[in-house]
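Entry:
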Amino acid sequence: MTTIGIIGAGNIGSQVARKAIESGYDVVISNSRGPETLAALVAELGPKATAGTAAQAAQAADIAVVTVPLKAYADVPVQPLAGKIVIDTNNYYFERDGHIEALDNGEATVSGMLQEHLPTSRVAKGFNHITAADITADSFPTGDPARRALATSSDFTDASDFVTKLYDEFGFDTVNIGPLAESWRVERDRPAYGSRQNVAELEANLAKAPRTI
């Protein structure tokens, strides 16, 4: 059974854990405060979930999800994630993270920064433009006309393919933006960010996104 290691047990991480377990995955979840602080969440998630440190979640992971504040991305363990697909849910909030000139100037992308930090991993963007509650509340079966679309992006085909598979299992369609250099199209304050969209609407919003805000 595939194990998803979740680094960051906040709103997004917890909801991804719930849907992953519902979809048949095992989960190891971590936060910055220590595994003992996750006892209530793990009890709720049930026997397919365990808590660990960030390093333990990374080590146990077949696939990892990084969902920590961007200002903490450099603390994500590197060696235990070598050779693994890493899904990045992060967004840049300068109010929280401090100003990052390369992002302000449109010279970098959030997920591209994580890829540079994890040079031996295969990073894909995912779950960054949906509210946490909607991950569990807004999913529909394949082919349902009400189905929502989410975007992914990666420099590695197998990584974006896995996100597409995971989205489908969670109840969402996928639009693949392409390489991480294009992932800014779904970052904060662009037309696709936070909106409930089907595939055609998401593609249109991605196409009209401005490079800088």
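The CA atoms of residues 79 and 120 lie 8 Å apart.
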